Amino acid sequence: MISHRNPSENHPDLLLDQFINHLTVERGLADNTIESYSRDLIRFLQFLKSKKISPLRVTQDHIMDYMGSLEGVLSVRSAARNLSAVKIFFRFLVSDGKIKSSPARLLESPKLPQRLPVVLTHHEVERLLSQPDVSNPRGHRDKAMLELLYATGLRVSELVGLKVSDINLEAGYVRTIGKGSKERMVPMGEKAMKALKDYLSDGRTGLLKKRRCPNLFLNPRGQSITRQGFWKIIKKYGMLAGISKEITPHSLRHSFASHLLEGGADLRAVQVMLGHADISSTQIYTHVTRERLKQIHEKYHPRP
């Protein structure tokens, strides 16, 4: 099963480096995904090391023992992601000629409980978007970010990665590069366009202060705002709006999709706007919509 190579080429640390390079260069995965897979694989390689097992001599039983060791330590969802990372790792070893077949090929991922995303009501969204104080540059920026996120359903990594050149205010579209380095164009609507125009004319120059930066959304140092920075921003406005739900940047993405479907939007159109490769990822929002309709029915029907 093992190719005849220099033993140093097959050291676990080197295999890990080669695998991460494969994910980055050849598969073009997002940084967050690569970080997650890297952590999962390090955990797996440490398990193999404790058992004195070479990654090139792993059997299906070894992987099953590893998955058993995760029970009670990780959630079912995290364990499933671990197995996914292991499967991709062994497929890489096969494609690189280091092993002939993957010992993980016959293993099935554990069934995940369906977890419905947190979706804000229309009223909660309005309260959230009305919180920024647009009398200062930061307020203009925050208003534009929140409006754009709700108008387009972008992922937070896509939002903070936007360049000024990605915004087309004449056509009313934003260009973004999503998972798998796939480009998509998403319409943004009048309110988001107005917030962006105000930010570009009155807010961004105040943050830039004669410095140069191609990114659209900036911090007070004139640099691109980070995911963590925006996370804190949306948490702050959620508290100011008096919203008790757990609000994250993804909450507005979820609300964007759910509200479109509630309004009668086509599922495939929402899939394209969200940048989902598989429509099954979009279908979870139909469950959210049905659950919401059920709650409305129970609340207002005279014979629920």
How would you describe what is shown here?
- It is a single chain.
- With 304 residues, the chain is mainly alpha-helical.
- 57% of the residues lie in helices and 4% in strands.
- It has twelve helices and three strands, in the order H-H-H-H-H-H-H-E-E-E-H-H-H-H-H.
- It is globular, with a radius of gyration of 23 Å.
- The chain starts with 11 loop residues before the first helix and ends with a helix.
- 30% of the residues are buried.
Q: Determine the CATH topology of the largest domain.
A: hpI Integrase, Chain A
What is the CA-based Rg, rounded?
A: 23 Å
Within CATH, the superfamily of the largest domain carries the name Intergrase catalytic core
How many domains make up the coordinates?
2
Structure summary, number of beta strands: 3
- Mean pLDDT, as a whole number? 86
In short:
This protein has 304 residues and is mainly alpha-helical. The chain has twelve helices and three strands.
Helix-strand layout with pairing:
Blueprint: H1 12-26, H2 31-50, H3 60-70, H4 76-95, H5 122-129, H6 137-152, H7 156-160, E1 167-168, E2 173-177, E3 183-187, H8 190-208, H9 227-240, H10 249-262, H11 267-274, H12 279-300
Please give a handful of descriptors for the protein shown.
single chain, 304 residues, mainly alpha, DNA polymerase, domain 1, hpI Integrase, Chain A, 2 domains, 3-stranded antiparallel beta sheet, 3 strands, globular, disordered N terminus
